[in-house]
Amino acid sequence: xxxxxxxxxxxxxxxxxxxxxxxxxxxxxxxxxxxxxxxxxxxxxxxxxxxxxxxxxxxxxxxxxxxxxxxxxxxxxxxxxxxxxxxxxxxxxxxxxxxxxxxxxxxxxxxxxxxxxxxxxxxxxxxxxxxxxxxxxxxxxxxxxxxxxxxxxxxxxxxxxxxxxxxxxxxxxxxxxxxxxxxxxxxxxxxxxxxxxxxxxxxxxxxxxxxxxxxxxxxxxxxxxxxxxxxxxxxxxxxxxxxxxxxxx
Length: 249
What we know:
Helix content is 34%, strand content 24%. The protein is α/β, with parallel strands linked by helices. The strands form 4 sheets. It has a 4-stranded mixed beta sheet. α3 (128-155) packs across α4 and α4 packs across α6. The radius of gyration is 20 Å and the shape is globular.
């Protein structure tokens, strides 16, 4: 049991736990409806839900007590993936072979071939992951800006700012001021998945919650929302396995 005493400080938005020597980030969610602690594993990653008035010390103890449960259920197939020559990186849902050009200058180029499209990356071997990462972020920003504007127009709201992040457990977040953060990995998914997340975050400018009214708003701007939502539930962890250059192993 735990004490329903409000803390002087709010719980963190996420916490890192050690699972057999592997650091795993667990998102933390406060819930007015929750009557007890709950540890779950949605597509976006481990989630600890805690009652709004519960003490963080009790929540942390609950998490540590159940870390073996979490370790046993984390998928082993979603191994860490890196952006380097020889890797098959999905772009808008289509696998592409990363090939170093050996040229010191130039831009990343996408080349269509009969068997497997290529991403040709210039620069020294040690610089290629960063160049590819920057190119992927540019493509993601362009797609997300366009789809966000589309849904904002349909819902008659204004998106003030769009930024890309490397969250390990979230696909996006939206502030009441109109600023939206998106996960750069969305460019790796099929376009209808990126479109769903854009619709989801823009809908928060109408409803800053996940109520029935919110989901009705998402469906109003994207009637086929369940397609993207289902894809993320099935394949989200595979996308999260892709790591930006310089991230910890």
